[in-house]
Specification:
Shape: globular
Strand order of the largest sheet: 2-6-1-7-8
Helix content: 40-55%
Number of strands: 8
Oligomer: single chain
């Protein structure tokens, strides 16, 4: 009988610590961490290399050869054909292109299938805003990670300051609250906890304490 892989989903609002915790949890368990945003960025990377004018989105999706590969350290690597483009995905140009193409319903549908295929072929920890509700509704473990908006804004503000940003905390908080509202009220796949997700509020928890609690949730649910 074919082995059924384990899927762990971590959803939640912006700056709740989903990416950090998903990476730590995947490393602890020996699972593949899946960055769904990197998939959009890889497609954007492909589009930015095309001659102008760009072909239609249908032509792009029919022609692109992109895949997820598990790296030597267990991390996710993104390929276009035989080329590893993972380290090219965080430039401003790619960010802008990814934001533009992510608004295309056909792109979302195309990548949804890739995300599900990745989970069928690997034990995964996948994080986002609709992973447990839409992308992997049959995942064995679902967590909704959240924290007080003021605390999330403080964390994001500190991260931005470390990178040299001078944007004030009040503006970061306002933007975060606006993002929360938009994410939870969007028409397609709004941000919400899956009915069978475990709610984990990390407002008063350190990074290590949050990872500890996530591991306990996993062990309690699937015995690992």
């Amino acid at each position: 009988m074919e082995k059924k892989h384990i899927a762990i989903t971590i959803d939640g609002p912006v700056a709740a610590g989903k990416t950090t915790q998903a990476k730590l949890l995947a490393k602890e368990l020996g699972f593949l961490y899946v960055d769904t945003g990197a998939m959009y960025r890889t497609l954007a990377c492909y589009v930015t290399k095309l001659p102008k004018p760009e072909p239609s989105i249908d032509e792009v999706l029919a022609a692109v050869d992109m895949k997820v590969v598990r790296g030597a350290g267990g991390e996710q690597r993104m390929f276009l054909g035989d080329t590893d483009v993972t380290d090219q995905l965080r430039t401003p140009d790619i960010s802008m292109a990814a934001s533009r193409i992510s608004a295309e319903p056909k792109v979302r549908e195309f990548l949804l299938e890739m995300q599900r295929q990745t989970a069928q072929e690997n034990d995964v920890v996948m994080e986002g805003r609709d992973i447990g509700t839409v992308i992997l509704p049959d995942a064995q473990v679902k967590v909704f990670l959240t924290a007080d908006p003021c605390v999330r804004a403080e964390r994001r503000h500190a991260e931005m300051q470390e990178k040299g940003s001078t944007i004030p905390y009040t503006e970061v908080l306002r933007d975060l609250q606006e993002r929360d509202y938009n994410d939870s009220h969007r028409e397609v796949a709004p941000l919400k906890a899956a009915h069978d997700a475990v709610l984990l509020d990390c407002t008063d928890l350190t990074v290590d304490e949050t990872t500890r609690d996530l591991l306990e949730i996993v062990r309690t649910t699937i015995g690992r």
